[in-house]
Write a structure and sequence with these properties.
single chain, alpha+beta, Four Helix Bundle (Hemerythrin (Met), subunit A), Heat Shock Protein 90, 4 domains, six-stranded mixed beta sheet, five-stranded mixed beta sheet, 17 helices, 18 strands, about 45% helix, about 20% strand, phosphoprotein
Amino acid sequence: MKSREQEYREIFMAEALEYYDAMSRHISELEKDPADEKALNELFRLMHNLKANARAMGHSDIGEVAHRMETIFGLIRSKERAFEGSLVPVLFTGVDTLGSMIRAVGEGEKTANADPLLANLERLVNGEEPVFEEDPDLASDEDATRKLELSDLVYIQIKKLDHLLNLVGELIIDRDRILTLSQEIGNPALQSTAAHLFRIADDLQYSVMDARLVNVGSLFNKFPRVVRDVATAEQKDVELAILGQDIQIDRNILQIITDALLHLVRNAIGHGLETPEVRVKAGKTAEGHLTLSAQTERDDVLIQVIDDGRGIDVESVRKKAVERGLTTAEAARNLDADAVRAFLFEPGFSMAKEVTDISGRGVGLDVVKLAIDSLGGQLRVDSVLGQGTTFSLVLPTSIAVKGALLFEIADRSYAIPLMHTDSVVSLWPDEMHVIGGVLLARVLHENIPVVNLHDLLNSSEDGVLPTANKGSLVGRQDIIIVNYNNRKLGLIVDRFLRQQDIVIKPMSKPLDMIDLFGGVTLLGSGQVCLVLDVPALTRLFLAKRP
């Protein structure tokens, strides 16, 4: 995997070479027509951008030349100087020198000595005549050694990569079908060809997915200014730490979570972190600490927003949930901390005591959760009162191709994304108990509600979920433990099949109205397999439970 510095260097080189090509074109246009304001404005903009980028990357010599050139073009724009006489060859030499310096950076060589050029540019700024001396380091237009080079990087529209990934998805489906057919037919030559196709399609799939990956730093590095502005508005002192900028993720996923991450950061400063006075009284530093981090978690990317603020008052949330009519007082008393914190993600739920530009407008964490759900990801919240809060976004590295667990119900294949699969277990009926009309299983010191998935799917049609009765269970039960919104649910299935990567396609009309299914995929046997929507299943169970 490329380092962040290497990736930034490549981006700088690609942009710098593009700038140089554009400069060469526009300065020639300006020579033909000194009154061409469009060409002049473009030259000024290009010099300004190159100056900023070069200085940011530590190439101060390139930045200084671009800065002096920008100054001259600024004088021409303000009519203080004219693009004529001895000024013209100096500016052409400046463009050529920038090209030589940029190429030297790309080749890891020492850049040319630009002192004579800088001296002439300074003379022009001061209204003096330039001095021309032969200098082998500064090539002129007539030097038959001039290099013409193209960037090693190509900018591609995201929609083109999206289309390419969709085609790869279709290829993966057909690849699996061909592999299955070759195994059924048993022809050695066909099996060998199918195996070769499998390897090529696999390499192509990961190559296309890799082309779409970007460092999360491209988003994270925009937040220091955001934090500064929000902290100032809230009259709070906040120190931001950014970790894991090198972690890579699909560019589309990063785009989708941008607003969600912005909301979480603003929420952490507005709700989480206290004012300096309150922090000092609580024995904390006056300055609040906010961390934005990314790391890999199995095949997923974990992005966290961590603050050392006041934490979430579970009892206040419990009370507010009852006031809002989201639950009854009796039911609320029996909810654990995770279940109570889950109310924070309900539409319009807010703990803000007053409306500000930052909070209290009823646009809450539900917006964040919806964005994460649309990606098939998870949003978790952990908090300790008085110590701080951590919001965790568990995201897939790719949208189109996802890991899934295949299983059977009534001889029909289904799939559940691994993103929402906590574990799989096989339990005997006497290892489960019915409490309050709900079947519970003790898994790793945790009581988890369990439901027969066949019954749950059928209840969506007639609105009735059969009363839990472990007496109807015969033999060892295969159970998939899913996790969504800090809630775990055990789904009893007929049989586990296997784990594999699948390409999820959207449901066609009118089936797209059934929100229990997140899409379909085609298995190697040619069978259509429905992909279950775990958030929708969880909501259905909570609505149908006794």
